[in-house]
Structures are given as structure tokens and as C-alpha cells.
Structure prediction request, 318 residues.
Amino acid sequence: MIKMNANTSKLFAILAVVVIAASSLAYVYLSDDGGEGENVGKGETEGGYISFFFYDNYEYDQKSGLLAENTHLANGFWVKGYGDTKTECFKDACERAGIDVVMTGDGLGGWANTTDGNYAHIGWAGGKWTSDIWLGSTETYKVKYMAIGHGRWSGGSGGNPPAPWQTPDDIQWYFGESKEPGTGTGVKFYFYDNYNNDPPAVKSQPYSSQTDRFVADGYWVTGYGGTMADAFRDACKRAFGNNVMIGYNDASGTINRIGNVGSQLHSLMWNGTAWESCNLSELSITSDMYIGIGHGSKSAGGNPPTPWQTPDDMNWGL
Prediction:
């Protein structure tokens, strides 16, 4: 038995403080601003996290016209992944986003809807995206931001990886994050790209193949407002930032521009069993509405390109 006196009492008090402090440190997460971050999102997870940008970029593909510029409506999204290694964080991020992934060592063998092997894993350092870095199944993560991209490299595998469309300054969270709700009625919008109806001369193989289409083919965002026009504009700002250029005619319901996309924009509504074309100006706003805002050519029959997802496929944190 330990005989207690004034000195031993002080010693035990100091030890208790040390134990509590050590326990607290074990549950500190690395946040994006370098301070302590909360483990938000799906479940309680120990370890650190990496903020991933998942994206498509076909700038080095053989293509013309529409796809030659940064005209993707769903150009990518951010998601946090938690774990003790880069690979653990990446797998967790994919699970949170509802994306399938096949690992081959420290690299990717298949990801989302793609199996063509055109992948890049890029780290953020010194205020810019750096060269390709391996995920590493045993190496503890050393970066706060990573971009995982799909697209061909310039000059083949020895060239430059497809550059991400965004930087950490552009972060708009879609999964595992909460945003302040707006005022009015909330409508759920699905922003997406679908080039299935484009002629072969306008697209390259990843677009024409059902097995190698977009990684970031679309995402769900809630827009708030008193009218459909208000909710649509609010959803655009939540998805693309407050400064996004929006061209919308309130009277006709025509969507002329969202950001860099200035043509072939369409609106559809979920009728409970299927997507159907709609005119936003003719709709009365309700909280049980699902609206698809799509980019792509119409079919020969004049139908807009249908969304890849239905409301049953939602993976989101908004």
C-alpha cells in the first residue's frame, strides 16, 4: 500500500492531468486550418482525415468541341475520409460518397464507374497541386488535401496528370458535412453530366462507354426559396459557390448558363418512378420535389439526357 502524504498527493494529481491530456490528444483530428477538427459525417471514427477532391478531367483525350474546355457541370466534389493511412482515408471517403473502389497495391485498379486505368493521385503542397503521389497502404498520411482524378495523362504515363478543376480554396462540401439551411422550402436538385446522346465526333471513349463514364457524374444539393427560381439559384450557389454565373429566365424557365456551361442545359422532375422533362417556371414549389439539372445533347427523339441517379441513389450530407 502506498502511504499518502502531501507530496504523493501532488504526484497523483499531476499524473492524472497527464493521463487526461494524453487521452484527449488521442482523439484530436487534423482540421483543414491546421487546428483541431471534429470528426463529422458518417459515424464516429478514430484517426486523422484527408480532404479529397474526386474529379474527371479529359483535357488530354482526343476530343473536339464541347468536351475540349472546362464545361463539366459535375466537375468534381469534395469528401473527407478518415483513417490512419492515406489508403484508409481514401477508402473511407469512397464509402461515404457511395463509390466503389478496387485497389492494386498502392494504386487504383477500378474506381466508381471506370476501369480504364487512367487515374491520378495528387497532393496539395506549397499552394499548388503537386506531382502524382502513391496512396500507400502502410504510410501514415502527411497531407491535408488530395485530388483523385480520372482522365488521360499528357504524353502517356510519363507526362502530366489530368489537372484538378478546383483547389482547396474552392471547397464546396457534398458529403459528410452540414450547411446552414436556407429560408423557404427546400427542393432537392441533382446536377449532372450525360453525353450519351452526343455524336462520336464530339466525345471520346470514356463518354461513350457505360463502364468508363464519369467518376463525378453528378451530385445532390438542396436549394431553398419561396419559388422554384429562388430554390434553383440557391442550389447553384451551394454547389458551385456564391459567385457562380447563373443564366435563368424566370418567365420561360430556360436555363442558359451555370458557371462555365453555357449550352445544352435541361431540367427534369422525378415523378415517383421515372425522370421526365419539366419547365421550372411552371412548377409550384413543394418540399417533396426532386429536380435534375443536366448537361448534354438531346436524343434524336428530342428527349433530354436522363440523370445517372434516382432519388433512391442519394449519397449526400446536405
